[in-house]
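Hey L., structure's done. Input below.
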Amino acid sequence: MAFPENFMTELTERNDIVSVVSEYVQLNRRGGANMFGLCPFHSEKTPSFSVSPDRQIYHCFGCGKGGGVVNFVMEIENISFPEAVEKLAKRAGMAMPEQSEDRESKKRARMYEINKTAARFFYEQLSTPAGAIARDYMDRRQIGPVTAKNFGIGFAPNTWDAMIKALKEKGYSDFEMYDAGLVKRGKNGGFYDAFRNRLMFPVIDVRGNVIGFSGRILDDGEPKYLNSPETLVFNKSRNLFALNLAKKSKSGYIILSEGNIDVVSLHQAGFDSAVASLGTSLTQEQARIISRYTNQVIIAYDNDSAGIKASQRAIGILEKLDLKVKVLRMSGAKDPDEYIKTKGADAFRNLLEGSENQVDYRLRSIKDKYDLSVDEYRVAFLKEATELVASLPGAPERQVYAKRVAELASVNGDVIAEEAERLHKRLVSKAYKGEIKKSARPENLNQPTEKSFRYENPASAVAEEGIIRLLYLEPELFVQALPEPSEFTSPVLAHIYTEVCALLGEHRAVNTSALAPVLSSQEMSLLVSIIQKPEILSDSRRTLADYIDRIRSEKERTGTKPDFAAIMRSKQNTAYEKARK
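Output:
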């Protein structure tokens, strides 16, 4: 969607990037003009996320992500450009301009509508005679009607086309249902309901949109849980079941469970901060989403080998975000749902209050593997436990747990502490050498941080970056003789160059807000890294000419080879030529 330039200018002026980013990231000044904090887009211990109040941009020197205030909101909230603009407009108290929506925005809005209609259909089916099997299941699992309404729980009839017929009556086509993941295509080319004979749980995002579904089978069929496929609005690795409810909790922590039923039971029992991943193990994206709402997570996975393994993996992901992680140890029940039903909500509350921190949990898990009365096993325990202590980032933390390990194995604490420090130094040195070796490889020199982009000719790409940087910093250079986009060796730089020239050709300001609708998040990150690099502007015309000469000399040296599809080159040249007229 295209917005008026004056509207976008006012929008960015009234949404200072430091103020907006500070709502998600704790920023501090290091003495210079920029603010720094821990990057919300990747795991790190040392702040490498920079925000420039002067340029109104952000850039992470670790993962390479960057952009302006609109891009930041798009990335952090996982929303489209129009949605990010609308969110910022609401934040600033600005009215949205009347605009015709672009094709993707219309499709996204339509998909929200069809999902909401489908959710209403499933909910209504729960009270029909056919829904008796689902109501019986809910009675057995002690899910009350109020809870069912709060979660929008419904029933998918055991038919091939009940939902299709209902949605067609509402004006939706087979192909719209297919794009939303609500139907599947048959061998004969027709369509049939994707969810049948299942208890249906709508997946609702933090803005209240129904983005997908998770269906629990009501007989002995497989799979036990069926989730919506990836769609324009649904990505299961970037969403959490019931986060739309848990974000309102006053508890101060998030309870991370394995399944939908566990979450529903926890909320019904008064533990309103429970969430679950959607059919997969916890992902880094989900962990980062959780970190926006709390700094403490309590893992309440199933009390079996798979649950223990999943807990260990989740701990490793969560601790990288500096979250305080605790783990429940449930005895006498396999999961939170069973524990609450057999022992009650008060007992579970006591369990929460007595939950172990993640280091204690991992240490106990190691101890449970060995019989410490046998010297051979005790040595094995000490080796594994000391390696765990060595991996801890803080020296005081290593000292405390080295003593704990020594006590468990009845050995001298100083010996364990010394060994842990020796191993810790080795780990740090190995990691540092690995990064140095990796960055020094010829193929990695002058390459963008974003791994999806690689320069086939780094020497030419440096000059191509330079031209983009000069035009961004000194737009008046646009009147000079410039190279064609097809002369660029890097397709991504050719695209960025074309879009910059298009803005200049329309006499518009070149900034991140103007480029946000036409550049992907990866392209925007690359652009920000380019304009962050130093450039001598005292004789910018001469510098521009030098960059152009370098591109053309590299082309002569390597020979003329098309680096990307002719259709793309034609599209870029057409846009470039239009801008230059």
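The first strand starts at residue 28 and ends at 29. The two ends are 25 Å apart (CA to CA).

-- N.
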